[in-house]
Amino acid sequence: MRLLSTHHVNRSWPQLAGLVAVVAGFYAISGIGMAYVAGFDAVHSRLVHAHWWWLGPSFGGVLLAFCGYYFAYRGIKWAEGGPELEAPALLAVVTAGFVGFLAHGGTALDEFAMRAGGADKREAKVRVGAIAGFEHGVLAMIVCPAAIIALATGVVVPRTDFTWPWAIVPIPAFVLVIWLAKRYRERLRRHGGWRRVVANFFDAVHIVYTVLTSPRRHGPALAGMALYWGADMFALWSATAAFGFHMSALSVIVALGTGMIFTRRTAPLAGGGLITVALVPTLWYGAAVPFAAATLGVVAYRFFTLWALLPGSLAAVPKLRELGRRGEDAGGRDTRTQRGEPALEH
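The structure assignment produced for this chain is given below.
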Protein backbone atom coordinates (compact mmCIF):
# COMPACT_ATOMS: atom_id res chain seq x y z
CA MET A 1 0.00 0.00 0.00
CA ARG A 2 3.00 2.32 0.40
CA LEU A 3 3.15 2.55 -3.42
CA LEU A 4 -0.31 4.16 -3.50
CA SER A 5 0.07 6.41 -0.45
CA THR A 6 2.75 8.86 -1.55
CA HIS A 7 3.96 10.82 -4.56
CA HIS A 8 6.61 9.29 -6.80
CA VAL A 9 8.88 12.30 -7.32
CA ASN A 10 11.81 10.92 -5.32
CA ARG A 11 11.77 7.44 -6.81
CA SER A 12 14.76 6.42 -8.90
CA TRP A 13 14.49 6.48 -12.67
CA PRO A 14 14.39 2.66 -12.88
CA GLN A 15 11.53 2.68 -10.36
CA LEU A 16 9.69 5.31 -12.39
CA ALA A 17 10.19 3.20 -15.50
CA GLY A 18 8.66 0.27 -13.64
CA LEU A 19 5.66 2.38 -12.65
CA VAL A 20 5.23 3.49 -16.26
CA ALA A 21 5.16 -0.18 -17.24
CA VAL A 22 2.52 -0.88 -14.57
CA VAL A 23 0.33 1.97 -15.82
CA ALA A 24 0.79 0.78 -19.41
CA GLY A 25 -0.34 -2.67 -18.34
CA PHE A 26 -3.47 -1.29 -16.65
CA TYR A 27 -4.20 0.87 -19.70
CA ALA A 28 -3.85 -2.06 -22.10
CA ILE A 29 -5.78 -4.53 -19.95
CA SER A 30 -8.67 -2.12 -19.43
CA GLY A 31 -8.87 -1.30 -23.13
CA ILE A 32 -8.70 -4.94 -24.21
CA GLY A 33 -11.23 -5.91 -21.55
CA MET A 34 -13.72 -3.28 -22.72
CA ALA A 35 -13.12 -4.34 -26.35
CA TYR A 36 -13.87 -7.95 -25.37
CA VAL A 37 -17.18 -6.85 -23.83
CA ALA A 38 -18.03 -4.80 -26.93
CA GLY A 39 -17.02 -7.60 -29.29
CA PHE A 40 -13.80 -7.52 -31.28
CA ASP A 41 -15.70 -7.56 -34.59
CA ALA A 42 -17.66 -4.45 -33.60
CA VAL A 43 -14.46 -2.72 -32.50
CA HIS A 44 -12.73 -3.68 -35.76
CA SER A 45 -15.63 -2.29 -37.78
CA ARG A 46 -15.42 1.02 -35.94
CA LEU A 47 -11.67 1.18 -36.59
CA VAL A 48 -12.09 0.49 -40.30
CA HIS A 49 -14.68 3.26 -40.68
CA ALA A 50 -13.06 5.73 -38.26
CA HIS A 51 -12.89 9.45 -39.01
CA TRP A 52 -9.34 9.89 -37.76
CA TRP A 53 -9.21 13.64 -38.23
CA TRP A 54 -11.47 14.10 -35.19
CA LEU A 55 -8.53 13.02 -33.02
CA GLY A 56 -6.72 16.28 -33.81
CA PRO A 57 -9.40 18.45 -32.18
CA SER A 58 -9.54 15.96 -29.31
CA PHE A 59 -5.85 16.45 -28.56
CA GLY A 60 -6.31 20.19 -28.97
CA GLY A 61 -9.04 20.03 -26.33
CA VAL A 62 -6.64 18.30 -23.94
CA LEU A 63 -4.02 21.01 -24.46
CA LEU A 64 -6.66 23.69 -23.87
CA ALA A 65 -7.75 21.86 -20.71
CA PHE A 66 -4.15 21.99 -19.50
CA CYS A 67 -4.07 25.78 -19.94
CA GLY A 68 -7.30 26.07 -17.98
CA TYR A 69 -5.96 23.83 -15.23
CA TYR A 70 -2.83 25.97 -14.90
CA PHE A 71 -4.82 29.15 -14.22
CA ALA A 72 -7.25 27.32 -11.93
CA TYR A 73 -4.42 25.82 -9.88
CA ARG A 74 -2.61 29.13 -9.64
CA GLY A 75 -5.78 30.89 -8.54
CA ILE A 76 -6.73 28.42 -5.80
CA LYS A 77 -3.14 28.36 -4.55
CA TRP A 78 -3.06 32.14 -4.21
CA ALA A 79 -6.53 32.47 -2.70
CA GLU A 80 -6.54 33.84 0.83
CA GLY A 81 -2.81 34.54 0.85
CA GLY A 82 -1.54 31.16 -0.33
CA PRO A 83 2.10 30.03 -0.62
CA GLU A 84 4.30 31.45 -3.34
CA LEU A 85 5.92 29.42 -6.12
CA GLU A 86 7.86 30.92 -9.00
CA ALA A 87 6.50 30.30 -12.51
CA PRO A 88 8.82 27.37 -13.48
CA ALA A 89 8.06 25.54 -10.23
CA LEU A 90 4.33 26.15 -10.60
CA LEU A 91 4.42 24.87 -14.18
CA ALA A 92 6.22 21.71 -13.03
CA VAL A 93 3.64 21.04 -10.32
CA VAL A 94 0.70 21.72 -12.65
CA THR A 95 2.13 19.48 -15.38
CA ALA A 96 2.63 16.61 -12.96
CA GLY A 97 -0.78 17.17 -11.37
CA PHE A 98 -2.62 17.38 -14.70
CA VAL A 99 -1.24 14.06 -15.91
CA GLY A 100 -1.52 12.53 -12.44
CA PHE A 101 1.19 9.87 -12.86
CA LEU A 102 3.60 11.24 -10.24
CA ALA A 103 0.95 12.45 -7.92
CA HIS A 104 -0.73 9.55 -6.12
CA GLY A 105 -3.92 11.24 -7.19
CA GLY A 106 -2.49 14.70 -6.72
CA THR A 107 -2.87 14.89 -2.94
CA ALA A 108 0.67 13.98 -1.90
CA LEU A 109 2.25 15.94 -4.74
CA ASP A 110 0.20 19.06 -4.03
CA GLU A 111 1.05 18.87 -0.34
CA PHE A 112 4.70 18.45 -1.31
CA ALA A 113 4.49 21.66 -3.41
CA MET A 114 2.65 23.64 -0.73
CA ARG A 115 5.28 22.74 1.87
CA ALA A 116 8.00 23.89 -0.53
CA GLY A 117 6.16 27.21 -0.88
CA GLY A 118 6.34 27.82 2.88
CA ALA A 119 3.10 26.32 4.16
CA ASP A 120 3.14 24.17 7.26
CA LYS A 121 1.65 20.68 7.27
CA ARG A 122 -1.83 21.78 8.28
CA GLU A 123 -2.13 24.61 5.77
CA ALA A 124 -0.80 22.33 3.05
CA LYS A 125 -3.52 19.76 3.80
CA VAL A 126 -6.20 22.47 3.80
CA ARG A 127 -5.12 23.84 0.44
CA VAL A 128 -4.85 20.38 -1.09
CA GLY A 129 -8.42 19.76 0.00
CA ALA A 130 -9.42 23.11 -1.49
CA ILE A 131 -7.90 22.22 -4.86
CA ALA A 132 -9.80 18.92 -4.99
CA GLY A 133 -13.00 20.60 -3.80
CA PHE A 134 -12.68 23.38 -6.37
CA GLU A 135 -12.14 20.85 -9.15
CA HIS A 136 -15.21 18.80 -8.27
CA GLY A 137 -17.26 21.86 -7.26
CA VAL A 138 -16.90 23.53 -10.65
CA LEU A 139 -17.69 20.20 -12.33
CA ALA A 140 -20.93 20.04 -10.33
CA MET A 141 -21.72 23.65 -11.33
CA ILE A 142 -21.50 22.57 -14.97
CA VAL A 143 -23.31 19.23 -14.71
CA CYS A 144 -26.16 20.31 -12.40
CA PRO A 145 -27.70 22.88 -14.79
CA ALA A 146 -27.20 20.50 -17.72
CA ALA A 147 -29.13 17.81 -15.84
CA ILE A 148 -31.92 20.26 -15.00
CA ILE A 149 -32.18 21.30 -18.67
CA ALA A 150 -32.28 17.65 -19.75
CA LEU A 151 -35.13 16.94 -17.35
CA ALA A 152 -37.01 20.13 -18.26
CA THR A 153 -36.84 19.41 -21.98
CA GLY A 154 -37.80 15.76 -21.54
CA VAL A 155 -34.91 14.29 -23.52
CA VAL A 156 -34.43 10.54 -23.22
CA VAL A 157 -30.62 10.75 -23.33
CA PRO A 158 -28.86 11.34 -20.96
CA ARG A 159 -30.82 8.85 -18.90
CA THR A 160 -32.82 10.06 -15.93
CA ASP A 161 -30.90 7.63 -13.67
CA PHE A 162 -28.04 10.11 -14.05
CA THR A 163 -29.85 13.42 -14.46
CA TRP A 164 -32.09 13.29 -11.38
CA PRO A 165 -29.23 12.95 -8.85
CA TRP A 166 -27.26 15.72 -10.56
CA ALA A 167 -30.32 17.98 -10.62
CA ILE A 168 -31.29 17.41 -6.97
CA VAL A 169 -28.17 16.78 -4.87
CA PRO A 170 -25.46 19.43 -5.59
CA ILE A 171 -27.28 22.64 -4.57
CA PRO A 172 -28.60 21.54 -1.14
CA ALA A 173 -25.34 19.69 -0.45
CA PHE A 174 -23.32 22.81 -1.25
CA VAL A 175 -25.54 25.03 0.94
CA LEU A 176 -25.36 22.56 3.84
CA VAL A 177 -21.58 22.22 3.72
CA ILE A 178 -21.08 26.00 3.52
CA TRP A 179 -23.38 26.53 6.51
CA LEU A 180 -21.58 23.88 8.56
CA ALA A 181 -18.19 25.34 7.66
CA LYS A 182 -19.19 28.87 8.65
CA ARG A 183 -20.69 27.67 11.92
CA TYR A 184 -18.13 25.14 13.15
CA ARG A 185 -14.72 25.56 11.49
CA GLU A 186 -13.26 28.01 14.04
CA ARG A 187 -14.68 26.05 16.97
CA LEU A 188 -13.33 22.69 15.78
CA ARG A 189 -9.92 24.09 14.89
CA ARG A 190 -9.07 24.43 18.59
CA HIS A 191 -9.28 20.66 19.09
CA GLY A 192 -7.19 17.71 17.97
CA GLY A 193 -8.07 14.28 16.62
CA TRP A 194 -11.09 13.89 14.36
CA ARG A 195 -12.25 17.43 15.14
CA ARG A 196 -9.07 18.84 13.63
CA VAL A 197 -9.61 16.71 10.52
CA VAL A 198 -13.14 18.09 10.15
CA ALA A 199 -11.81 21.63 10.76
CA ASN A 200 -9.29 21.15 7.95
CA PHE A 201 -12.14 20.08 5.66
CA PHE A 202 -14.21 23.11 6.62
CA ASP A 203 -11.23 25.43 6.07
CA ALA A 204 -10.84 23.94 2.58
CA VAL A 205 -14.55 24.57 1.99
CA HIS A 206 -14.04 28.17 3.11
CA ILE A 207 -11.30 28.71 0.52
CA VAL A 208 -13.43 27.22 -2.26
CA TYR A 209 -16.41 29.34 -1.18
CA THR A 210 -14.24 32.46 -1.18
CA VAL A 211 -13.11 31.79 -4.74
CA LEU A 212 -16.60 30.95 -6.02
CA THR A 213 -18.21 34.02 -4.46
CA SER A 214 -15.53 36.53 -5.53
CA PRO A 215 -15.55 36.26 -9.34
CA ARG A 216 -14.01 39.69 -9.87
CA ARG A 217 -11.05 38.86 -7.64
CA HIS A 218 -10.69 35.21 -8.59
CA GLY A 219 -11.96 35.35 -12.16
CA PRO A 220 -8.90 33.64 -13.72
CA ALA A 221 -9.25 30.66 -11.36
CA LEU A 222 -12.96 30.26 -12.09
CA ALA A 223 -12.52 30.72 -15.82
CA GLY A 224 -9.55 28.35 -15.78
CA MET A 225 -11.42 25.52 -14.07
CA ALA A 226 -14.47 26.02 -16.30
CA LEU A 227 -12.16 25.91 -19.33
CA TYR A 228 -10.46 22.80 -17.96
CA TRP A 229 -13.72 20.86 -17.70
CA GLY A 230 -15.26 22.28 -20.87
CA ALA A 231 -12.20 21.44 -22.96
CA ASP A 232 -11.95 18.01 -21.33
CA MET A 233 -15.56 17.29 -22.27
CA PHE A 234 -14.89 18.44 -25.83
CA ALA A 235 -11.83 16.18 -26.00
CA LEU A 236 -13.94 13.17 -24.99
CA TRP A 237 -16.72 14.15 -27.40
CA SER A 238 -14.26 14.48 -30.32
CA ALA A 239 -12.56 11.19 -29.50
CA THR A 240 -15.92 9.41 -29.58
CA ALA A 241 -16.92 11.23 -32.78
CA ALA A 242 -13.80 9.81 -34.43
CA PHE A 243 -15.37 6.37 -34.11
CA GLY A 244 -18.76 7.22 -35.51
CA PHE A 245 -20.90 8.55 -32.66
CA HIS A 246 -21.73 12.18 -31.93
CA MET A 247 -23.04 12.72 -28.42
CA SER A 248 -25.32 15.63 -27.61
CA ALA A 249 -23.84 18.38 -25.44
CA LEU A 250 -26.08 17.43 -22.51
CA SER A 251 -25.10 13.77 -22.83
CA VAL A 252 -21.35 14.34 -22.74
CA ILE A 253 -21.64 16.77 -19.81
CA VAL A 254 -23.75 14.46 -17.64
CA ALA A 255 -21.91 11.29 -18.65
CA LEU A 256 -18.43 12.66 -18.03
CA GLY A 257 -19.52 14.17 -14.73
CA THR A 258 -20.90 10.81 -13.65
CA GLY A 259 -17.98 8.77 -14.95
CA MET A 260 -15.39 10.92 -13.21
CA ILE A 261 -15.81 9.17 -9.86
CA PHE A 262 -12.07 9.61 -9.74
CA THR A 263 -10.37 12.22 -11.88
CA ARG A 264 -6.92 11.42 -13.19
CA ARG A 265 -5.61 13.87 -10.56
CA THR A 266 -7.26 12.11 -7.63
CA ALA A 267 -6.90 8.46 -8.72
CA PRO A 268 -3.70 6.45 -8.09
CA LEU A 269 -1.21 6.25 -10.96
CA ALA A 270 -3.13 8.70 -13.17
CA GLY A 271 -6.22 6.52 -13.10
CA GLY A 272 -4.40 3.67 -14.87
CA GLY A 273 -7.20 1.55 -16.27
CA LEU A 274 -9.68 2.74 -13.63
CA ILE A 275 -10.95 5.75 -15.59
CA THR A 276 -11.41 3.64 -18.72
CA VAL A 277 -13.42 1.03 -16.83
CA ALA A 278 -15.56 3.78 -15.26
CA LEU A 279 -16.13 5.93 -18.35
CA VAL A 280 -16.88 3.32 -21.02
CA PRO A 281 -19.96 1.76 -19.33
CA THR A 282 -21.09 5.25 -18.29
CA LEU A 283 -21.05 6.49 -21.89
CA TRP A 284 -22.77 3.31 -23.06
CA TYR A 285 -25.57 3.36 -20.51
CA GLY A 286 -25.93 7.04 -19.69
CA ALA A 287 -25.28 8.61 -23.11
CA ALA A 288 -26.40 5.71 -25.37
CA VAL A 289 -22.98 5.46 -27.04
CA PRO A 290 -22.45 2.04 -28.70
CA PHE A 291 -20.06 0.06 -26.51
CA ALA A 292 -17.45 -0.31 -29.26
CA ALA A 293 -17.46 3.43 -30.01
CA ALA A 294 -17.33 4.23 -26.30
CA THR A 295 -14.36 1.89 -25.83
CA LEU A 296 -12.33 3.31 -28.69
CA GLY A 297 -13.26 6.89 -27.84
CA VAL A 298 -12.25 6.57 -24.20
CA VAL A 299 -9.03 4.73 -25.06
CA ALA A 300 -8.10 7.53 -27.46
CA TYR A 301 -9.09 10.21 -24.94
CA ARG A 302 -7.00 8.50 -22.25
CA PHE A 303 -4.05 8.26 -24.63
CA PHE A 304 -4.08 12.04 -25.02
CA THR A 305 -4.65 12.84 -21.33
CA LEU A 306 -2.02 10.36 -20.11
CA TRP A 307 0.52 9.17 -22.64
CA ALA A 308 0.81 12.23 -24.87
CA LEU A 309 1.64 14.44 -21.88
CA LEU A 310 3.59 11.93 -19.78
CA PRO A 311 7.00 13.02 -21.19
CA GLY A 312 6.31 16.54 -19.90
CA SER A 313 5.42 15.15 -16.49
CA LEU A 314 8.66 13.18 -16.32
CA ALA A 315 10.63 16.20 -17.53
CA ALA A 316 9.27 18.08 -14.49
CA VAL A 317 10.84 15.60 -12.05
CA PRO A 318 14.17 17.47 -11.56
CA LYS A 319 12.33 20.71 -10.76
CA LEU A 320 10.00 18.89 -8.38
CA ARG A 321 12.96 17.33 -6.58
CA GLU A 322 14.49 20.79 -6.24
CA LEU A 323 11.20 21.93 -4.68
CA GLY A 324 11.41 19.07 -2.23
CA ARG A 325 14.90 20.04 -1.13
CA ARG A 326 13.75 23.63 -0.71
CA GLY A 327 10.89 22.51 1.50
CA GLU A 328 13.28 20.48 3.67
CA ASP A 329 15.60 23.48 3.99
CA ALA A 330 12.67 25.62 5.11
CA GLY A 331 11.49 23.06 7.64
CA GLY A 332 12.95 24.84 10.65
CA ARG A 333 11.70 28.33 9.80
CA ASP A 334 8.53 30.01 10.99
CA THR A 335 5.62 28.87 8.90
CA ARG A 336 3.05 31.08 7.27
CA THR A 337 0.36 29.72 9.57
CA GLN A 338 2.41 30.64 12.65
CA ARG A 339 2.80 34.16 11.22
CA GLY A 340 -0.97 34.44 10.74
CA GLU A 341 -2.30 32.69 7.64
CA PRO A 342 -5.51 34.45 6.51
CA ALA A 343 -7.08 31.33 5.02
CA LEU A 344 -6.93 29.59 8.37
CA GLU A 345 -8.01 32.46 10.58
CA HIS A 346 -11.15 34.14 9.19
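Interim note for the steering committee: The radius of gyration is 21 Å. The longest helix spans residues 121-153.
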